[in-house]
Write a structure and sequence with these properties.
Order of helices and strands: HHHEEHEEHEEH
Strand content: 15-25%
Distance between the termini: 32 Å
Largest sheet: 6 strands, mixed
Strand order of the largest sheet: 1-2-3-4-6-5
CATH architecture of the largest domain: Roll
Number of helices: 6
CATH topology of the largest domain: Diaminopimelate Epimerase, Chain A, domain 1
Number of domains: 2
Radius of gyration: 15 Å
Length: about 140
């Protein structure tokens, strides 16, 4: 719940962590976040490549949640990549190195990336298809 709140309603997340009476608002935000993520994954344009799967989604999708759900429930590969124009999120099995391809693909498109413990995110200039191509080349 806190990660969904951090992404969508950080003020409510902080208030909840501080023990304020915001449970109803937090629950509502969490449900909406989950609904958006599941809907985005249901409607995603998906593909399977050598060692990873990709889900291309709309710009307003919660990418980190989409990548996590795709990885946990839909990906037979050790890496799941969720993409929208200008943004990417990745989740990988323990021991699978994704830092280099995530960062290199972002750099090719004048973007930035952060990766830690098999999870990462990137922002970049350009369409999702350009990031996917750069990611594939970097792998």
């Amino acid at each position: 719940m806190l990660s969904a709140l951090a992404a969508d309603r950080p003020g409510v997340g902080i208030a909840l962590a501080l023990g304020r009476d915001v449970e109803d608002a937090a629950l509502s935000a969490w449900r909406e976040h989950g609904h958006r993520a599941h809907e985005a994954l249901r409607l995603a344009d998906t593909g399977r490549y050598d060692g990873f799967t990709v889900a291309r989604v709309d710009a307003d999708a919660p990418l980190s949640t989409v990548a996590r759900l795709q990885f946990a429930y839909r990906s037979p590969e050790p890496v799941a990549l969720a993409l929208a124009d200008g943004r990417a999120a990745v989740v990988a099995t323990e021991g699978t190195t994704v830092a280099t391809p995530v960062r290199e693909a972002a750099a090719v498109l004048d973007g930035r990336a952060a990766v830690r413990e098999g999870r990462g995110a990137a922002t970049f200039d350009g369409p999702a298809s350009d990031y996917l191509e750069a990611f594939r080349e970097a792998r």
